[in-house]
Amino acid sequence: xxxxxxxxxxxxxxxxxxxxxxxxxxxxxxxxxxxxxxxxxxxxxxxxxxxxxxxxxxxxxxxxxxxxxxxxxxxxxxxxxxxxxxxxxxxxxxxxxxxxxxxxxxxxxxxxxxxxxxxxxxxxxxxxxxxxxxxxxxxxxxxxxxxxxxxxxxxxxxxxxxxxxxxxxxxxxxxxxxxxxxxxxxxxxxxxxxxxxxxxxxxxxxxxxxxxxxxxxxxxxxxxxxxxxxxxxxxxxxxxxxxx
Amino acid sequence: xxxxxxxxxxxxxxxxxxxxxxxxxxxxxxxxxxxxxxxxxxxxxxxxxxxxxxxxxxxxxxxxxxxxxxxxxxxxxxxxxxxxxxxxxxxxxxxxxxxxxxxxxxxxxxxxxxxxxxxxxxxxxxxxxxxxxxxxxxxxxxxxxxxxxxxxxxxxxxxxxxxxxxxxxxxxxxxxxxxxxxxxxxxxxxxxxxxxxxxxxxxxxxxxxxxxxxxxxxxxxxxxxxxxxxxxxxxxxxxxxxxxxxxxxxxxxxxxxxxxxxxxxxxxxxxxxxxxxxxxxxxxxxxxxxx
Amino acid sequence: xxxxxxxxxxxxxxxxxxxxxxxxxxxxxxxxxxxxxxxxxxxxxxxxxxxxxxxxxxxxxxxxxxxxxxxxxxxxxxxxxxxxxxxxxxxxxxxxxxxxxxxxxxxxxxxxxxxxxxxxxxxxxxxxxxxxxxxxxxxxxxxxxxxxxxxxxxxxxxxxxxxxxxxxxxxxxxxxxxxxxxxxxxxxxxxxxxxxxxxxxxxxxxxxxxxxxxxxxxxxxxxxxxxxxxxxxxxxxxxxxxxxxxxxxxxxxxxxxxxxxxxxxxxxxxxxxxxxxxxxxxxxxxxxxxxxxxxxxxxxxxxxxxxxxxxxxxxxxxxxxxxxxxxxxxxxxxxxxxxxxxxxxxxxxxxxxxxxxxxxxxxxxxxxxxxxxxxxxxxxxxxxxxxxxxxxxxxxxxxxxxxxxxxxxxxxxxxxxxxxxxxxxxxxxxxxxxxxxxxxxxxxxxxxxxxxxxxxxxxxxxxxxxxxxxxxxxxxxxxxxxxxxxxxxxxxxxxxxxxxxxxxxxxxxxxxxxxxxxxxxxxxxxxxxxxxxxxxxxxxxxxxxxxxxxxxxxxxxxxxxxxxxxxxxxxxxxxxxxxxxxxxxx
Lengths: 244, 291, 586
Description:
The structure holds 3 protein chains of 3 kinds.
Chain A: E1 4-13, E2 16-26, E3 31-35, H1 42-50, E4 57-62, E5 65-66, H2 72-78, E6 80-83, H3 95-101, H4 111-124, H5 141-153, E7 159-163, H6 171-186, E8 190-195, H7 198-204, E9 207-212, E10 215-220, H8 222-226, H9 229-236
Parallel strand pairs in A: 3-8, 3-9, 6-7, 7-8
Antiparallel strand pairs in A: 1-2, 1-4, 4-5, 9-10
Chain B: H1 2-32, H2 39-56, H3 61-84, H4 92-114, E1 129-132, E2 135-138, H5 139-161, H6 163-173, H7 175-180, H8 185-211, H9 217-232, H10 237-257, H11 263-277
Antiparallel strand pairs in B: 1-2
Helix pairs in contact in B: 1-5, 1-8, 1-9, 1-10, 2-3, 2-4, 2-8, 2-9, 3-8, 5-6, 9-10, 9-11, 10-11
Chain C: H1 13-29, H2 34-59, H3 67-83, H4 89-111, H5 116-136, H6 138-141, E1 154-155, E2 158-159, H7 163-184, H8 188-198, H9 200-205, H10 210-236, H11 246-259, H12 264-280, H13 288-302, H14 306-313, E3 341-352, E4 355-366, E5 370-374, H15 381-388, E6 396-401, E7 404-405, H16 411-416, E8 419-421, H17 434-442, H18 453-467, H19 482-495, E9 500-504, H20 512-527, E10 531-535, H21 539-545, E11 548-553, E12 556-561, H22 563-568, H23 570-577
Parallel strand pairs in C: 5-10, 5-11, 8-9, 9-10
Antiparallel strand pairs in C: 1-2, 3-4, 3-6, 6-7, 11-12
Helix pairs in contact in C: 1-7, 2-3, 2-7, 2-8, 2-10, 2-11, 2-12, 3-4, 3-10, 4-10, 7-10, 8-10, 11-12, 11-13, 11-14, 12-14, 17-18, 17-19, 18-19
């Protein structure tokens, strides 16, 4: 049984259909990439899984249990952490406080245990340790991304939903972030990754799905997807021929 | 010099009350982006609860205060459920109008019960105060100043050093993200209303022996407190305190040196001045609109 | 100002006229008791002030909690003018109205640049200060005692001393005010107010000077408040400060909300109801203000559109209005030169704190061409469009349209200069009809294609016809499907006859058929010689449409040229698909 399975999921923003009967699955321990251009429905998929959006139809099975339409506070308690697009680091809290609040879904956590886990995160993301007392808004995009991922990991998720972790980051920083994603999987967390940056995403993923206007276009292994004309068309238009 | 110090003392005492009510404004505003125009009624209700418990029920002060504050907590919770919660997804205007409606409702409900004649509430201490040189330190004013200092310290500790305080801050900064982390957003907002109502009620209890307990007590204090929070910088906790103290001092000196009947107008004139010259206030909420 | 209203006379108008005439004549021939006369007099004068709130709150969406203050200014104007300055009644009334209007304008002008809660606060403060002044400036106002023996006027040698005659005067004025407020709703100014209320940013971008419109609405509201107050003073002969307190302002507010803030007739109904209600609810006498307060909350929660909104829901589908046969849409300035550079962007930079959203971008757009701006998320495209339409001021660099520097202008000034735009997340005036939305677009300042009101209407219809929406003109835009809303937004921009049209992701949220229709529409626009500058993520669309493409990444231009070469450019492919990190792969 896959850890996460979407069954004919549909969602809409008011009159705008964003997802149309989307089905996909993510196995325990996998890194799965969800690709497509802007407006393809990638973020909507994650928002529907984490409960920020209520689906119009279809099911979201997490560990065999239908979690579609549950409140986000409930979903994160079940073990799904969502690191949304734009990092959303609390601007008026320090880095340490931001990370600490990631454990809000786990009740009855002792303060000492909490502090120890925050230290663990600083071990995993050594670059942000020296900013632990700095307010969220003062960080650069890459540092904010690391805080956001660390905060997501503090909930001890079985499944981590990552939305556009490379957005607006310089190439070197993108590499750092993706190295961390690989490490997260090594620690036993399953990752569903939404990316516009197809090449980087496919370089770490086990499998990938490509969406176009809310529908699944193609799925497969990274190599197959990378060489697939449909994938290129989804990003760069139909008549662009292979180059580079 | 003695007169100056005496006025300064009185101004700080009154200003502290404005600060407490302004703090309540700011907390609710930060948590919900709603300007609660009924914040002053919390002060009025707090004072009347003291009248109920001490005068009507004959309870001693030490029992009446916690009971009144608990009552205020309940009122804050009901206020959230009745006035804010049903409108939480609507735009600014309906919610503001709804809180104005609540303010009228609360004032006039009390009016029906207690009539327009003001009630008086004895000071909390039997001794009038201290004479230091030519300056007289009234015990009730000292109490107000002391309690305000304690509360500000408590609030600082609560928001800066407890996890619950951090969760409330996170909620006011980004509700969606907070709920993604498993922070119960609705409960945090409820807590904010309860705490703000208690703060307001406490301000009312403290100021009641000085101002008389009347139905208009709330709007009188609330308008000044609101002006104070704009002067301090809307949405800023430090701004609310500084703004409240400044207004209290300006008002006291204005009444002493310029005009007694227009005492209440000074706050608004200062407010107009700020709106024209520095609308973001001393500590500066960003007024600029985002596209 | 365009002085014609697009409001059509409603079918119930004859009935209303008969009722109005009857209400004026009946008291004259069939005497009422003094108490009833007073009640009606109060209702009539209050209704004028409430109609003022219809303008400021209902039409323009700006809160004012000082209407009783303006009402009081009018009343004291008449009282002081007649009893102390011994002016004729009409002159005293004008004095009161002028003072109210002037203070309204000053108050509005000083705060309407700020957000809503500032305005609420300032109007309350004004109300409080006014009460203090009325109570304490005893030399002028007689303080809490108030002013007695305010005379009633004679008009055209007819004495209005008798209450029934004076009531007739009040009713005539009220009906005049009512018709004016109803008529105002369809004028250029009135539509501008509603545009501001529904979507302030969109209003600016189609050429409405939102600040001026808000101040005008505020001032008009104060004038109507003053007028009502002046007649109130004459009617009752005695006034005192407590009649114009904060509480009364709240009563006014409740009346307009209960009736339905954006309909003149609704406001009148709300006023009548709340003046008569306490009579019927005498047993509540002491508690009636508490009931008012509760009513306000309940109206907000359960009946946000007021009684009028609830009633009009039962009124059935909109009537078909015959707008005649649409003209063919003309686009562009017939005198304009051909070719050459229309839009020139020179070294444009926009920084947000440390973030360089745009970092020294140069782009030239040729007249009559379709130019596309593309780039990955966060590359600065939308920032560019916001700078071009005046929403952001550039940090450095300049923008020239037709050789004239336009950077730094306000959005409405840019619209007046001929720059139209649409938004990615469609911004229509959602409570108005399709036709009204497009009329507002056609009313942009200096629109040479629509200078008279008749031309404005024909222009709007032609624009709707061009996008294929002429048959939906009378439908409320909120009830349209998404794809049609996009077409209406484009029609709104076209109605303003822009020389340059900025399109912000026009294909976003459209399905495949709708996208094809959009491409067809844009191609027709290009065929008419309209210069288009668009951003979109749909590369198929961009490739089909664009004559030239500029690519942004991290706020900098990384490529520019014809579609085929740009989309094959290695840097562009890298920007979109990403580069393989050397050692990220596990």
